[in-house]
Description:
- By secondary structure, the protein is α/β, with parallel strands linked by helices.
- The protein has 14 helices and 14 strands.
- The protein has helices spanning about 5-10, 15-25, 45-55, 70-85, 100-110, 125-130, 155-160, 180-195, 220, 255-265, 270-285, 285-310, 345-355, 380-395, and strands at about 35, 95, 115-120, 135-140, 165-170, 200, 230-235, 245-250, 325, 335, 340, 355-360, 360, 370-375.
- The chain has a seven-stranded mixed sheet with strand order 2-8-7-6-5-3-4, sandwiched between helices. The protein has a three-stranded antiparallel sheet with strand order 9-14-13. Strands 1-12 form a two-stranded parallel sheet.
Amino acid sequence: MKLTARINSIKPSPTLAITMKANALRAEGRDIIGFGAGEPDFDTPDNVKQAAIRAINEGFTKYTPVGGIDELKDAIIAKLQRDNHLSYTRAQICVSCGAKHTLYNLAQVLFEEGDEVVIPSPYWVSYPDIVMLTGAKAVILKTRASEGFKIQPSELETAITDRTRAVIINSPSNPSGVAYSPAEVEKLAAVIARKKVLAISDDIYEKILYDGLDFANVASVHPAMKELTVVVNGLSKSHAMTGWRIGYAAGPADIIAAATKLQSQNTSNPTSIAQKASVEALNGDQAIVGTMVREFEKRRNVIVERLNAIPGITCMTPQGAFYVFPEIAGLLGRKHDGKVLTTSSDVAAWLLDAANVAVIPGGEFGHDDHIRLSYATSMANIEKGLDRIRDAALKLE
Length: 397
Ligand SMILES: *Cc1c(COP(=O)(O)O)cnc(C)c1O
C-alpha cells in the first residue's frame, strides 16, 4: 500500500527498538544486561497505585474533559507554583498521554512547512522526528563534549533566524545528563527573549538532579519569557510512572487551546484512572523522588568511574537524569572478529554480540562518537555489565 511521504520521512524510536530487541534476545535465553531503557527501574509508589484502584472501584472510568480533569490541572498548577514559582490558570494547562504526546500536539499546532525549530544536540531521539512530521525543519545546534555539551548563548543567537519558530531546551538532558545552572539558563533566556521566539522547555528530568544543583527553566529565571515559553513536564520520570502515560503542557492560553482542540480529535482525553493517580503523585508524599535520586546518584558515580577505567572510553560526569553519554572515539577503527567498528551502531551491535550488553548508539542522538547508557538498572547489573564491556574492549584487535 502506498504510504505518505510524511510517515516515510521518519524512523521508529531507536531506543524503544533496542529495548525490544534486548527483550527478544532474553526470551531466547540470552543473559542480556540492558542499559537501553529510558525509564526508572523503581516501582510506581503504592499511594499512587491505590489512588488508581480507588478510581476504578468508584467507577471513574469514563471520558473526562479533553485537556484533563480540573482536580489534576489544579495539582499541576500547584506544582508549578511550588517548584518553579510560575503561576498558571486552568486555561493554560493541557494534560496529554505522556510528555511525548504533549510535544507532538505542540509541534502540530505550532510548526509547518517553512518553519525552523532549533534543537541542541545531543538531542532526545524524538524531537527531530516530531518536528519533521509537521513539515518544519529541525535545525540541529551541535554542542561539544569539551564544552560540557552546553550551547553557548552566542551560538544560539546565530542559530535563530527569521524562520525560527521555537527552541527546544531539555535540562537535565536525555541523553547527556547535562544540566544548565540557573545562571546559564538566564543567559539563554535573555537571547530567546531578545529574539522573541518560543521556548519549549522539556523539564521531564527536573527532579533528577545531583550534587545539590538547583533546577531552573527559561520562564522561571526571566520574567519576559513566561509569555514565550511552553513548559512540558510529566510523571513518567519523577514518579516512575512511564506506563501510566500522563504528561502536560503549561503555557500561553492560545497555544494550549489549540493543543486541546487537536487532542479532542485524536485521543479525546488522557486515561481517567491515570489522571486520578497523577493527582495523588503530585499532591501526596514525595518521598519516592528523594529515594530514587539518592540511588541514581550512587549509580552515576560508579558507572562514570568504571567507564573511565576502560581504555578507549571517556565519560564526563553528568549532573542529572539517569544517563551517561561516554565518548567512544578510542574504540572506533578497532576490530572485532575481523570487522572494523566504524560507527556508534557498530559499537552497540558489537557490545550486544560480544558482551551481551545493550546500549544505544550515540548517532541516534546526533553524536556518532558516543554511546548512551541508562543507569536505571540495579547496581549489581551496572557492576556486571561494566565488567563485560571492559573485558570485550580489552579483546578488540
Ligand atoms: C522520557 C522523555 C519524555 C517523555 O516521557 P513520557 O513518558 O512521554 O511522559 C520526554 N522528553 C524526554 C527528554 C524524555 O527522556
